[in-house]
Amino acid sequence: MPGLPSTDPGSLRFRKAVAGDVPALRDLIALSARGLSAGHYTPAQVEGALAGAFGVDTGLIRDGTYWLAEQGGRFLACGGWSRQRALYGSDALHGDGPAGFRVPGQDPALVRAVFVHPDAARRGIGRCLVGIAELEARANGFTTLELMATLPGVPLYVALGYHPQGEATHPLPDGSPLPLVPMRKAF
User: Fold this and answer.
1) FRET partner for 137 with CA separation of 20 to 30 A, picked from 120, 128, 146, 161?
2) How many domains, the chain?
């Protein structure tokens, strides 16, 4: 069961992220973005996104809604959910976090910051993290989830029942746009 410790030190384990994980999470997110974005984004777009759109949001860690998957002490993936207002982005994008929270039953909760190490891609780990986010959001009274998908993430979210809601762009530091896809799923 996700989140429960295993007696096998080499087994895959899911746990909530803590503040001490932030440096390793930054490294994981950068590896994921650089390794899985080929064919979807240019290297310049990825580096620009790592300056704000992609990264660690410590508010999710403080809220206890950010999870990681690890195996043998190695971080393989991270992701979570939020009741905060920010749809995406790291601390560099929105500082200490947006004002206010979403209201269960009225507003959608958010799937946030799902990143998978390239060596662990397509093994179902990202799917598990999204599943944890969905279960927790539902347990907290939310009936709908939204997310801002990267282009390489769209196929996963479509397979999980999320529906594109048009197109969006995030302005990168050099002024160029980063294409993204807002998506939504109702329970």
Assistant:
1) 120
2) 1
In a domain, 134, yes or no: yes
CA atoms within 13 A on the CB side of 93: 23
pTM, 2 dp:
0.89
Q: Which of 97, 109, 104, 111 is nearest to 62 (CA)?
A: 97
Structure confidence by residue, pLDDT tens digits, 45-83: 999 999 989 989 999 999 999 999 999 999 999 999 999
DSSP 11-36: SEEEEE--GGGHHHHHHHHHHHHHHH
* Angstrom distance (rounded) from CA 80 to CA 169: 22
C-beta atoms surrounding 111 within 10 Å: 28
C-alpha to C-alpha distance for 106 and 101, rounded to whole angstroms: 11
Residue 2, domain member (yes or no): no
Backbone angles phi, psi at 78, to 5 degrees: -145, 155
Q: Considering the domain boundaries, does residue 120 fall inside one? A: yes
